[in-house]
Design goal:
This is Xaa-Pro peptidase family protein. The protein is α+β, with helices and mostly antiparallel strands. It has 10 helices and 18 strands.
Length: 408
């Protein structure tokens, strides 16, 4: 089938019907909580509910949903045609010329106040994900409650709780994203040599993986961002890996370097996550000891995930194993994992203080790490989906040491 003849159902993205069902869930939630209108400012939350993906800037965008089922939006003029191309039909809208005013003499949130007035929401119960637009790219603005001169119930959980359990369509997109994250990692691993430049190998593999993705998927692939590539891989090396989020360093790969990698795909706006610990040349006894400990801890994390347990209970299993069986609790720097989907990190978290109940359809990273100061970090991360009885890995790259040795 030629790209020109592809129907929207063939494209790798969430369809209009699912976006409509998401908004209907919000309408019911508003009615149950006796909330008259909800203002959604977070760009990812706007996209989740409307299908409108955009590049967030200093110009506020807000989606407004009302308990009686109306959909409206605050938009800068420069995004109007973009919203019309992607988003649902609106019952009302407020367009402003520019930020901070574009000659209108009015802050954009005053246009939102006018919109809420037309919707009959002023003076009634209004909620929002956050109390006003986030401060990015030089934006300055008042809280929504100050503009409206009334309380606003601000709660990110109103939308983010709905995002925790993924639909079949979301899981399919993330499964495809995992496939391309795995592919990017393979290209990168196969390109690493002693003397390789860390940055050049990382970016070269990402570009080649993206070329492969576009060649295979063609018009089925629908980009959802202005920045970044659909398939990505990177690594850091040596003692820098002892920092869980160490930055890139200039220089070349050397014999004996420990490598901690990261790779992911993005399909339909949904991400994957894959990380591996590798070694350049033959691993010595010290490396093998920590690698085996990390691998065992990750397996405990896999085994801990099943419906009905809490995130804290799963994390407790991992931390208990690292403390009591490995005697390495002092090498832990972070929790075992996190949810994700449209964002690289999403609620909930596999953390001792997150008591969210695990449900089928949730997607997590599982990535307990051990960090040995001035030596190296040891961390695998895999994308998993919760099933009715446990979990299933979506990232399929080998976890075993024999497959993660780079020839010296």
């Amino acid at each position: 089938m030629s790209d020109a003849l592809l129907s929207k159902t063939d494209r790798l993205e969430i369809g209009a019907d699912e976006y409509r069902l998401r908004r209907e869930r919000v309408f019911r939630l508003l009615a149950e909580r006796e909330i008259d209108a909800l203002c959604v400012f977070g760009p990812t939350r706007v996209a989740y509910l409307s299908g409108f993906f955009f590049s967030p800037t200093e110009r506020p965008v807000a989606l407004v949903l009302t308990a009686d089922g109306r959909v409206a939006a605050l938009l800068p003029n420069l995004e109007l045609s973009h919203f019309q191309q992607q988003g649902p039909k609106l019952d009302d809208s407020a367009m402003y010329p520019e930020y901070p005013g574009g000659g209108s003499g009015r802050h954009p949130l005053l246009f939102l106040r006018d919109l809420l007035s037309r919707l009959g929401a002023l003076g009634k119960k209004i909620a929002a994900d956050v109390d006003g637009y986030e401060h990015r790219w030089g934006y300055r603005g008042p809280a929504l409650s100050a503009v409206l001169e009334q309380p606003v119930h601000a709660d990110v959980a109103l939308i983010d709780d709905l995002r925790m359990v993924k639909s079949a369509a979301e899981i399919a997109l993330m499964t495809e994203a995992c496939r391309w994250g795995d592919h990017a990692h393979r290209l990168m691993q196969d390109s690493i040599r002693v003397g390789s430049e860390e940055l050049l190998i990382s970016h070269g593999a990402s570009l080649q993986a993206t070329r492969d993705l576009l060649a295979e998927l063609g018009g089925r692939y629908v980009p959802k961002a202005r920045e970044g590539l659909p398939a990505n891989a990177m690594f850091i090396r040596g003692s820098n890996t002892a920092h869980p989020h160490g930055l890139h360093e200039a220089g070349a790969v050397a014999l004996g370097d420990v490598l901690v990698t990261g790779a992911y795909g993005v399909v339909g706006g949904y991400e994957s996550e894959l990380e591996r610990t590798m070694i350049v040349g033959e691993p010595d006894a010290e490396f093998q000891r920590y690698f085996a400990a990390m691998l065992a801890a990750q397996q405990v994390g896999f085994d801990a995930l099943r419906p009905g347990r809490t995130c804290a209970e799963a994390e407790s299993d991992v931390r208990r194993f690292i403390r009591d069986e490995l005697g390495m609790d002092d090498l832990v720097r972070h929790h075992t994992g996190h949810g994700f989907g449209l964002e690289g990190h999403e609620h909930p978290f596999l953390d001792l203080d997150d008591h969210t109940v695990i449900e089928p359809g949730m997607v997590f990273s599982v990535e307990p790490g051990l960090y040995v100061p001035e030596f190296a970090g040891f961390r695998h991360s895999d994308t998993v989906v919760i099933t009715v009885s446990g979990m299933e890995q979506l990232s399929l790259y080998s976890r075993e040491l024999d497959d993660l040795v780079v020839a010296g």
